[in-house]
UniProtKB/TrEMBL annotation:
Residues that coordinate or bind Fe cation: H122, H126, D313
Listed transmembrane segments: none
Annotated Gene Ontology cellular component terms: cytoplasm
HAMAP family reported for this sequence: TsaD
Enzyme class: transferase
Cofactor remark from the record: Binds 1 Fe(2+) ion per subunit.
Family: Belongs to the KAE1 / TsaD family.
Protein name: tRNA N6-adenosine threonylcarbamoyltransferase
Ligand binding (substrate): I145, V146, S147, G148, G149, D178, G191, D195, N285
Pfam families noted in UniProt: TsaD
Length: 347
């Protein structure tokens, strides 16, 4: 294999597969940043009745959908497998059964077609979603990764090179949003619902705690805040006092955002970086986008984020990460296995 000799002459085509949770997705990208197709089959409605993702259900749906999604991605991109230079696939972190569906499919295709296989860290994929939207973006920059399963603050030193400054010690941001929404009877997924309610609520109505941890720490902790909200709800109900959902949502969300924004800004200032990017499903939160942008202006820090369709799990972001890994010679072998607890920067 010659990394400098793409099949298409002047550019590389990546076929990417993502199945880490409850979205089955396949995409085709040109030179890592131009999306020719990005097909996503979501299972949100399937899991709503359970109030969250059921791993076994997710895995079965991936098996049903994955071949159709790949075929549609190739068709929409107007390419065939003969045009593809390499296959990128998520191998962690995520639900092990869900990961194995995408990974097994990618390995089978790579083996049958004698094509390079590139394993991708799902968290790295979220970071790379910003490269797709912001064509001039290049490292170094600070990245706040916030989703249903992850909360990280990473110094992106170069393509594929990360210094982890902090991560959650308990609940992820999206997980906390979902649990609070469930306790309020708002439905699933909780993040968009709370964000919408917060827009008409009073963020100072209820004094929920801000958990900053030790001085100088960039780690996060959300379990205490989540417990404070649940205790408040239970107390109000026991006293027969009406709960103003908008105020609870606004006060809870502001308590979360105060910590996220401060740590992201402090990290960028300490590392002397002039750009912060947001990644992950919670990057779609309008309050987070607005607040971080406003705080960034005070420090002459530019704040960037992906469009909504690239915030949630999708294969385009995996394809972007796969492209840079491939160019760096990071090729996987057929022994590549799913790693549910994969850390950013792990091999």
């Amino acid at each position: 294999m010659n990394k400098n000799n793409p099949k298409n002459g002047q550019y590389y085509l990546t076929l990417a597969i993502e199945s880490s949770c409850d979205e089955t997705s396949a995409a085709v990208l040109k030179d890592g940043r131009e999306v020719l197709s990005n097909i996503i089959s979501t299972q949100v409605e399937e899991h709503k009745k359970f109030g969250g993702v059921v791993p076994e259900v997710a895995s079965r749906k991936h098996v049903e959908n994955i071949n159709m999604v790949i075929d549609e991605a190739l068709e929409k991109a107007n390419v065939t497998l003969d045009n593809i230079d390499h296959i990128g696939v998520t191998y962690g972190p995520g639900l092990v059964g869900a990961l194995l569906v995408g990974l097994s499919t990618a390995k089978a295709m790579a083996y049958a077609l004698d094509m390079p296989l590139v394993g991708v860290n799902h968290i790295e994929g979220h970071i790379c979603a910003n490269y797709i939207e912001h064509k001039d973006l290049k490292p170094p920059f600070m990245c706040l990764i916030v989703s249903g399963g992850h909360t990280h603050l990473a110094h992106v030193k170069d393509y594929g090179v990360y210094e982890m400054l902090g991560r959650t010690r308990d609940d992820a941001v999206g997980e906390a949003f979902d649990k609070v929404a469930r306790a309020m009877g708002l439905g699933y997924p909780g993040g968009p619902i709370i964000d919408k309610l917060a827009k008409t609520g009073n963020c100072e109505a209820i004094k929920f705690p801000r958990v900053y941890l030790e001085n100088g720490s960039y780690d996060f902790s959300l379990s205490g805040l989540k417990s404070a909200v649940l205790n408040y709800l239970n107390s109000q109900r026991q006293k027969g006092i009406e709960i103003v959902e908008e105020d609870v949502a606004a006060s809870f969300q502001r308590a979360v955002l105060d910590v996220l924004v401060k740590k992201a800004i402090d990290g960028a200032v300490e590392k002397k970086l002039d750009t912060i990017v947001i990644a992950g499903g919670v990057a779609a939160n309008s309050g987070l986008r607005h607040m971080l942008k406003e705080e960034g202006k005070k420090h002459n820090i530019k704040v960037l984020y992906p469009p909504l369709e690239l915030c949630t799990d999708n294969a385009a972001m995996i394809g972007c990460a796969a492209y840079y890994n491939y160019k760096a010679g990071k090729i996987s072998n057929m022994y590549l296995n799913a790693v549910p607890g994969l850390k950013l920067g792990s091999v």
